[in-house]
Amino acid sequence: MTDILSKLSEARAIPVVRHADASVAARGASILAENGFPVVEVTFTVPEAANLIASLRDRQPEACFGAGTVMTVAQANAAIDAGAEFIVSPCLAEDVADLCEERAVPYLPGAATPKEVFACWQAGAAVVKVFPAKQAGGPGFVKAVKAVFPDIPLMPTGGIGLDDMQDYLDAGVLCVGLGELFPARDLERGDDGAAMEFVRAAYVRVRGLSKK
């Protein structure tokens, strides 16, 4: 558990890969992992997400891949069997939490209120995903939640861009989930070179940010 917390903290930004085309998702996840981002989340809205995670782990064993939008025990088992090192849900799924505890895999459920944050923590969450962070109140909301739950690691996700990521880090979060890092438009038009250039520039920006 400590190991994944260290990986997430060091990564700062966790790219979220979400796309209806599995080939686009695969190329994007590979580009992210190959160009500086050591931790990548692949959501289960991607077709054959478990197979993609297994393939990514085989090709890039040095990177850390997690599974996102996991809502059922079957999905969680498939993701863990594929090599996912952490499981993320948009909200608390208690049976998934129990499964992750049984299989000793960190669980990161989503919460949008202080009550939900605490419920996730009581259910055994390794990290609580504040989601959707922007709509819930942005950095100010996250900072207020962190003030009353200083021992709960938080990962705000949803509506966050590189331009406001520093504000979330200043609020004391462990890391930030960023869908903006996935270069969907470049990949959709087959311009992997532009996608790689974007990801490399984004990585430089992330590493230039400071953490409290």
From TrEMBL:
Keywords: Carbohydrate metabolism, Lyase
One function term, GO molecular function aspect: lyase activity
Pfam families for this protein: Aldolase
Keyword Lyase: yes
SUPFAM superfamilies, alphabetized: Aldolase
Superkingdom of origin organism: Bacteria
Pathway: Carbohydrate acid metabolism
UniProt-listed InterPro entries: Aldlse_KDPG_KHG, Aldolase_TIM
Oligomeric form and interacting partners: Homotrimer.
Family: Belongs to the KHG/KDPG aldolase family.
Name this protein carries in UniProt: Bifunctional 4-hydroxy-2-oxoglutarate aldolase/2-dehydro-3-deoxy-phosphogluconate aldolase
